[in-house]
Amino acid sequence: MKRILSGMQPTSHLHLGNYLGALKNWVKLQDEGAECLYMVADLHAVTVTHDPEQMAQATREIAAAFIAGGVNPYNSALFVQSAVPGHSQLMWLLSTMAQMGKLERMTQFKDKAGKDSERAGLGLFAYPVLMAADILLYKATHVPVGEDQKQHLELSREIASTFNTRYKTEHFPPPEPYIMGTATRVMSLKDGNQKMSKSAESDLSRINLTDDADTIAKKIRKAKTDADPLPDNVKALEGRTEALNLVTIYAALADKSREKVLKQFAGKGFGDFKPALADLAVSKLAPITGRMNELMADPAEIDRILAKGSERARTVSAPVLQETMDIMGFWKSG
Ligand code: ADP
Ligand code: TRP
């Protein structure tokens, strides 16, 4: 039986990369009937400077985006990481099995720590161990994420395997990354070599799920491209990273292959392609934005959903944490 777990941080608005690279797959797995747990990863969000006044609201907003994007909270458990104490507890246990050398090699740590890694917080360094705890606390078998999280998942697998070897058990199943679709890595609209990201400075580099139709059209119009017409095959786009990115986004939004999209637009320039992409993006994203706004108008309902989901997450995870502690030999009252 598949058990799915994934999460996103309530750091800022979700963008098209989060939607096409991850959220769309969350919904697909849910609709295929798997048992799904989707979480707002607020404990991860405090590894970088955050605004305490904004965090609860950002948590509701990201939950609204999950639901608007297709997560059914009556079917999947939609919960808040910090509302399930087991995440932090298991993280401590697993931290005894995570090698510092491996953590040092994590590209996200290197990126976020910047030049002065000596001053980086322990939380930022241990971020992937918390992520392993998130997954293993539910014995999740599949984890739908974008490409950039693959390295963290690899580490989760290693931690699971170290635990199993050290305690001679098969307690933790190795979690499989679930990275699929055409847009596992959506790139910035301003630089085809950078991933589209919440943290990029220019808002023109990303399409947010909260952008209105005019903003989406404007951002696509201003997206960096080149002067050549589109070819009729993907191979010919090699080296044209910005062009490839826009074609990839079109294909993912239309649920078509990139080859099919290129057959349709071969010989056309961006003067034709960009308006078509803008129309498609607006038609796909406007219903999500509309639904998000409706949900945000009733924060008490979102709170009820999150409270219920968190309760369910606590129920599912409690026996796994207890069993983990038993295997490690901790005292418990008779
Ligand atoms: P960001 O990198 O923008 O801060 P997160 O780290 O919160 O976003 O990522 C949430 C999810 O979205 C993860 O599964 C991640 O792999 C996916 N994701 C983020 N950016 C992209 C992107 N540009 N393309 C595809 N998937 C992405
Ligand atoms: N680290 C992930 C990201 O930045 C978010 C996350 C936290 C996550 N815990 C997780 C994703 C567990 C999958 C499973 O995108």
Let me know the largest β-sheet: 3 strands, parallel
Q: What small ligands are held by the chains?
A: adenosine-5'-diphosphate, tryptophan
Rg from C-alpha positions? 21 Å
Q: In percent, how much strand structure appears in the residues?
A: 5-15%
Which strands sit side by side, in order, in the main sheet? 1-2-3
| Helix-and-strand structural type | mainly alpha
Total beta strands: 5
Number of helices: 13
**What is the mean pLDDT?**
96
Distance between the termini: 33 Å
Low-confidence residue ranges = none
Envelope shape: globular
Relative helix content: 40-55%
Compressed to H and E, one letter per element, the order equals: EHEHHEHHHHEHEHHHHH
Explain how this protein is built:
The longest helix is centred in the C-terminal third of the chain and has 30 residues, at 299-328. A 3-stranded parallel sheet has the order 1-2-3. A two-stranded parallel sheet has the order 4-5. Strand 4, helix 8 and strand 5 form a beta-alpha-beta unit. 54% of the residues lie in helices and 7% in strands. With 334 residues, the protein is mainly alpha-helical. Adenosine-5'-diphosphate (ADP) binds at residues 8-9, 11, 17-18, 21-22, 145-146, 148-149, 184-186, 195-199.
